[in-house]
Write a structure and sequence with these properties.
The chain is an all-alpha fold. The protein has one domain: Farnesyl Diphosphate Synthase. The protein contains 19 helices and two strands. The radius of gyration is 20 Å and the shape is globular.
C-alpha cells in the first residue's frame, strides 16, 4: 500500500475498464462461484435456525434472500449476494489440496459475519436498498435490524466453532480465532470510515489502510482460513495472505468506482448514495487531494453540509469529471490487479487453481456488479 498511482498505470490494458463499463459488458462470475454453491447453501441452511424457532429469524432469512418480509420462502432459497468470501474459503482449501467440503462450515461462518456487518452498515449509512430489495432497517426499523445483526454475528461465531467433519479440534479453534481477529479489524476499518466522513482531507495512504481493514480483512482471512483447513504449511499461508490482501484492496477500489459510476440496475444500489452520505471513497479522496482554487472551495462547502441534494451531487460529479477521478480510480484498480497477479505468481497452485485465481482477478477489476 502507499503512493497514488500515475495515470500511466492504466495503460497496461488501455481503455479496458472504461470501455467495458460504457458498453455494459463485464466479466461473468468465475466458475468457482458455482462450484461450491450447493455445499455452501447446505451449510448456511443448517446454520441459520428455522423461522418458528425465533422471531428474529424472519429478518435474517429476509436479508439472506431466503424469504419475503412475511416469512414466505423465496422460489430459489439462496443468498442474493455473490458469496465472495465463502467461495474464496472453499477455493483456497481445495487449491491447497484439501477437501473443500471440510471448509463449508467455515465458509458459511464467513458469509454470516459478512452479512452481520451489512445489516449494521445499512443502518449507519441509512441505506434503503440492498440487493434489489428494501433493507432490513427500512422494513422493520433500526432497533430490530440491530438485533438481527447481533444475531447474525452470534450464529456466525457458533458456526465457525463447528468446522466440518474430519477437521481437528485445534484447527477449528484456530479458524475461529482467525475469523474473530478478521472481523475485529473489519470493525476498526468501519470506525475509521465513519470518522473520515467528518474530515475534509484524507490521504491516499490513510484510505488504503482503512479499506485493508474494513473490506480486506475478511477477504484475506477467507483465503487464509481455507488454506489453514487444508495445510499447516506456514509458507503457503503467508503466500495466500499476500494474495488475499491484494484481492481485498482490488474489490473495494472497484466497488468505489461502481458506487459513483456504476449502473443502478446492475449493482442494486443507488449510484448517488456514496456522495449523498459524504463517504470518502477513493474518487472523493483523490478529488480533495487534487482540487485547487474554486473547485476545492466548492468541495469543502458541499462536504461541510449534513446531506447533499441532487444539485449538490451534480456539482460533485462535475468536479470529479474535471479532475479525471474516474480514470485515476481505474488506474489504481489496474495497478492493484497487477499486485494480485504478482502475488499469485509466487503461489505454487495446481494449474486449474491458478487459472481460477487469474479469472478472479479479472472479475474483481472489471466487474459491473
Amino acid at each position: 500500500m502507499g503512493t497514488t498511482p500515475t495515470a500511466s498505470a492504466a495503460t497496461r490494458q488501455p481503455g479496458r475498464l472504461q470501455s467495458d463499463t460504457a458498453s455494459g459488458v463485464g466479466p461473468s462470475l468465475p466458475a468457482m462461484f458455482d462450484r461450491y454453491r450447493a455445499d455452501l447453501e447446505d451449510a448456511l441452511s443448517n446454520a441459520v435456525p428455522p423461522l418458528e424457532s425465533h422471531a428474529v429469524n424472519t429478518l435474517l432469512r429476509y436479508h439472506l434472500g431466503w424469504s419475503d418480509r412475511h416469512g414466505v420462502p423465496s422460489p430459489s432459497p439462496a443468498s442474493q449476494g455473490k458469496a465472495l468470501r465463502p467461495t474464496l474459503c472453499m477455493f483456497a482449501c481445495e487449491a491447497c489440496h484439501g477437501e473443500p467440503r471440510q471448509a463449508a462450515q467455515a465458509a458459511a461462518a464467513l458469509e454470516l459475519i459478512h452479512n452481520f456487518s451489512l445489516l449494521h452498515d445499512d443502518i449507519q449509512d441509512q441505506g434503503a436498498e440492498r440487493r434489489h430489495q428494501p433493507t432490513v432497517w427500512a422494513v422493520w426499523g433500526t432497533r430490530p435490524a440491530l438485533v438481527a445483526g447481533d444475531a447474525m454475528q452470534a450464529i456466525g461465531d457458533m458456526t465457525a466453532l463447528h468446522t466440518g467433519d474430519g477437521v481437528p479440534a485445534a484447527t477449528a479453534i484456530r479458524v475461529s480465532g482467525l475469523l474473530t481477529q478478521a472481523y475485529l479489524e473489519m470493525i476498526e476499518g468501519q470506525c475509521r470510515d465513519l470518522q473520515f466522513e467528518q474530515r475534509a482531507t484524507i490521504g491516499a495512504d490513510e484510505y488504503l489502510d482503512m479499506i485493508a481493514l474494513k473490506t480486506g480483512a475478511l477477504i484475506r482471512s477467507s483465503l487464509v482460513i481455507g488454506a489453514t483447513i487444508a495445510t499447516n504449511d506456514a509458507q503457503t499461508g503467508d503466500g495466500v495472505a499476500r494474495f488475499g490482501r491484494a484481492i481485498g484492496r482490488l474489490f473495494q477500489i472497484r466497488d468505489d468506482y461502481l458506487g459513483i459510476w456504476g449502473d443502478e440496475a446492475v449493482t442494486g444500489k443507488s449510484t448517488d448514495s456514496d456522495i449523498v452520505q459524504r463517504k470518502k471513497s477513493y474518487p472523493i479522496v483523490y478529488a480533495f487531494q487534487q482540487a485547487a482554487g474554486a473547485s476545492r472551495d466548492e468541495l469543502l462547502r458541499l462536504y461541510a453540509q449534513e446531506t447533499l441534494d441532487e444539485s449538490d451531487v451534480e456539482q460533485v460529479m462535475a468536479i470529479l469529471d474535471d479532475l479525471g477521478a474516474a480514470e485515476q480510480t481505474d488506474a489504481l484498480t489496474e495497478m492493484t490487479a497487477e499486485e494480485g497477479r504478482s502475488a499469485l505468481a509466487m503461489l505454487e497452485l495446481p494449474p486449474w487453481a491458478a487459472e481460477d485465481a487469474a479469472n478472479l482477478i479479472d472479475f474483481m477489476a472489471y466487474r459491473l456488479f
